[in-house]
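If you are new to this repository, start here. Below is one unmodified record pulled from the training split, so you can see the exact layout before writing a loader.
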Amino acid sequence: MPTLPDSYYAAFAEMDGNSHHELIVAEQNGEVVGTLHLIFLPSLSDQGGTRAQIESVRVDSRVRNQGVGREMMLHAIQRARAKGCVLAQLTAHATRKDAHRFYKSLGFSASHAGMKLSLK
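And here is the target side for that same chain:
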């Protein structure tokens, strides 16, 4: 098995044990087939309401279109509600049209235009 760069381990260590971060993992037959990073962000918007940021949604190509991503997303939405979040948000690259359709099918809307600035 290839070794990951130390930066992955450092990021996981920072998330592990932090109540504002949850890593959701989907398994089939004891094998990890999907992951999702859920972050709870206190916000000054929405009268100080907490936002759920959904990041790093990944599903193994062998099991795509079998409901794994949908189940992870529904679980993340349920966790956000349980934590009292006022909204769930995510970004998807503009070229990922299938992902956009998927997120819209879950009730997400393209309400804002996102921007990023690389700091590398």
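Two things worth knowing about this chain: The first strand starts at residue 21 and ends at 28. The chain has a mean pLDDT of 93.
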